[in-house]
Amino acid sequence: MRVIVQLWIVAVVFFTLAAGAREAASQALAIDQGPDWTTAARNDFYTRDQGSRIMPLSWMQALQQPNGTPFLEANLGRYGYLPNPADVRGMPVGFTVASQDGVDTIGMTCAACHTREIDVQGAALRIDGGPAIVDFQGFLADLDTAVGTVLATDAAFTGFATRVFTIRLRRTSRRHCAKP
Fold it and tell me: Which terminus of the chain has a smaller tally of CB atoms within 10 A, N or C?
């Protein structure tokens, strides 16, 4: 019985720390991992394309959760993925966007599952290369549900297609406006 109580206390403390880390994510301090682990190296670890392809970015941006909110809401924090303030597209740590045949495609890197934040005395500390506590299976299951919903009815597909078209039109307009 005593061992069970001790395990219960450890579990409560652990999950309390994990929840606190997510709340303080925007103010996380990177752990010193040696002189070669620079900000540039860290950002490269978070965003280097490793060849993984999930789907076109505009599709992922157009997908919705069952409650109608965007699938990518809050940097996928509901699965434990961490925000990446350095990513201009708002992708979480370990998610990449690469152009393939002229189409921006979202993928994942090792950093998605190997970057963690812990809360120590109110300070969020980021550990690169450590085990993340993410719900990858939940992410895939919810992604499957979101895609299945799009395919279920003509109305759902039409709404999705309209959102994809709007996203791509906006992106194209920005690219053309930015050119001299």
Answer: C
- Give the span between the Cα atoms of 179 and 13, in whole angstroms: 53
3-state class (DSSP) for residue 28 = coil
Whole-structure pTM over 0.85, yes or no?
no
CA distance 74 to 152: 26
Domain ranges across the chain: 2-178
| Structure tokens that stand for 5 in this block | 């109580």
| Gap between the Cα atoms of 177 and 83, Å rounded | 29
Angle at 48 between CA 113 and CA 143, to 5 degrees: 50
How would you write 49-94 as a 3-class SS string? CCCCCCEEHHHHHHCECCCCCECCHHHHHHHCCCCCCCCCCCCCCC
pLDDT score, position 100: 81
Q: Is 102 in a helix, a strand, or coil? A: coil
Kind and range of the H or E run holding 22: helix 2-23
pLDDT for the residue 27: 74
Q: What is the pLDDT of residue 25?
A: 44
Ranges of residues in the chain whose predicted pLDDT is under 50? 3-25
